[in-house]
Design goal:
Layout: E1 8-13, H1 18-30, H2 42-59, E2 65-70, H3 79-87, E3 90-95, E4 105-111, E5 127-135, E6 138-145, H4 155-159, E7 164-168, E8 179-181
Parallel strand pairs: 1-2, 2-5, 6-7
Antiparallel strand pairs: 3-4, 5-6, 7-8
Length: 188
């Protein structure tokens, strides 16, 4: 409960996969690990898919909800990974004119495949919360609001706790929206 409001929260953590475990082992043995490669947002997309039915059942269309993930040292829940997990991988559009009629050129950007949040998918998840270490014994929370949430989380609910909150900027033709920090409400 946040004040008089009920918010459904599911908490998940990223456990190191085999590749990350091997890199950690090598880091301990020789002082450096291996280069890791992954598709941005993949690990978070799996967390969203794994909890969406449970969250939908618990919210019953009446309550906002948060999927809160404990970020790992590998950055699976950094702001970029959250954005592309929710709204899709960024695509650059290139126009290729006929031969001799000019050079290929960029015509814009958009979100593309692998999106988990759409007007018809995962609307019961109001946002993604990111727990991360800010010091040896200090944890912080950031919340990234889902623009397609059927029950949006009220910004004021988290303002009183000093939680940084973000939403996508407004749509602009030819570019992908970035996260914009939501200003806290200051009462005088």
């Amino acid at each position: 409960m946040l004040g008089a409001d009920e918010v459904i929260v599911e908490v998940k953590e990223f456990k190191p996969n085999k590749e990350e475990q091997d890199s950690n082992r090598l880091m301990a043995e020789r002082g450096y690990g291996t280069a890791l490669s992954h598709t941005p947002g993949d690990r978070l997309r799996k967390k969203i898919a794994g909890c969406s039915a449970q969250i939908k059942g618990r919210t019953d269309g009446k309550h906002p909800s948060l999927l809160v993930v404990l970020d790992s040292p590998f950055g699976h829940a950094d702001p970029y990974n959250i954005r592309v997990a929710m709204y899709g991988l960024e695509q650059i559009h290139i126009a290729v004119p006929p031969i001799g009629m000019g050079s290929p050129h960029r015509t814009g950007m958009s979100y593309g495949p692998k999106r988990k949040m759409t007007p018809k998918h995962n609307t019961s998840i109001s946002g993604i919360g990111r727990l991360f270490m800010t010091g040896p014994a200090q944890v912080s929370l950031e919340v990234y609001h889902n623009r397609f949430a059927s029950m949006p989380l009220k910004h004021a609910l988290l303002d009183q706790y000093g939680v940084d909150q973000f939403e996508l900027e407004g749509e602009m033709t030819g570019i992908t929206s970035k996260w914009r920090k939501i200003a806290l409400i200051v009462e005088k």
